[in-house]
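tool_call: predict_structure(chain=1)
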Amino acid sequence: MRVYFLNPGIATKDKYIREGRCMQKASSWVTQWPPISLGILAAIAKPKAEVFLLDGNIENLKLGQLIENVIAFRPDLIVISTGFPSIEEDMSVARELKLALPYAKILAFGMYFSILEKQGVEDCPFLDFCIIGEPEETFRELLAHLENAKTDYARVKGLAFWQDGKPVVNEKREMLDDLDKLPHPDRDLFKNNRYQLPHNNRPFTLVNTGRGCPYQCFFCVANIYSGVKARKHSVGYVIEEITQCIERYGIREFLFWEEVFTIDRSYVLELCRAINEHRFNIHWAASTRVDLLDDELLAAMKEAGCYLLGLGIESFNQAILDAAKKATSVSDVPKAVELCHRHGIKVMGHFIFGLPGETKETAENTISSMLKTGLDYMQAYCAIPYPKTGLGKMAEKNGWIIAKRWPEYDFGGSSILELPTISAEQVSFYRKVAFRKFYFRFRYVLKTAFKEISLTQTAKLLKFSDWIGLKKDKR
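tool_result:
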């Protein structure tokens, strides 16, 4: 059996990150992410099949070249990663592949099909299979069916498929309790040196430390995909993966990929102790909440190599946070930033403009407050009403959604919500203002641009400025 794994990406087209809830243009992070979800699926298939993985984000192939590459491999199964903002381009590639290789089965997975389920499948009749939810165990079982020429696909939980010209969506699969049953991503299939951090040009990778989120933020899709139970890889599993990255690939820069990294305080302390005991000499970043930090935790993280924490701040208006069920306080933010800086850890604040209750005044206050809080970096997004989220249900009920196509559901794109208190155009405008005022302050440019950013990184920053719309914004 031969399986071709594809992260779609066509020359002259936008490149997209497609990892769980993170579905946005790669330029929003000024770098490409290694497609570790595909890497895990490839590792599952490798003992039983000949595999090949192509990341179109870094290969820069034209569509014809990509199709030729797939044809040359002669796959029995093609596995395609997808996301909301990239879905039309993803499915355009899938459609052309089906025309070129009618004998090959095509499987798609990702947040798009996990949220839309039957509706998503109905729009893509050229696909043979879709996975709803976390893909690994469903993929493992489907692979066994294909290997043994079984066609009773209705028995495979989490799978959607076409039968007699109609889409069938099977019973949902339970979340995998023991994440250590999953193999590490097969990084032999990646061109690891092509994934570099924007600030130092060193190769980096994602290491998944856990999945699931018990918090109920009503704008987030994380627990739709990975559940409300926080599940962790064992410390030993993570240490083994870090060891592989260092010894096989020379990678010492990591993003510990998880919804809320410090949700289990004892786990983080244990992991940090293990990193120090192994004397890895690594550098890493993670994301968490503003109310889940303390001195002992941050001291341990810094000693183990943490240099950056992303904090989900969202807004500096308490009423907006409460309505969004964020369960944090505005007063938590300066405390968290000060704690991080006390231990020499930089902070990236994440903000969402256009949540219910947003007005010109609240948006301006959030921008003003973010400039005073001492953040080292920030990311700003427009609220997106993904189906199945509380925000999506509220927006649909109230007729706030102005999007006509699924790619407009782009967390890193323009606002698609016309709230009674602020227009979509105004929300998009304030998001851009936030970037301008934060990153183009004279003191910030002196401190950061001239001290931390080399001339060779300028092109990457220009891509970032294009993503946030600095070149073309007109109010």
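agent: Confidence is low (pLDDT under 50) at residues 454-462, 471-475. Proceeding to next step.
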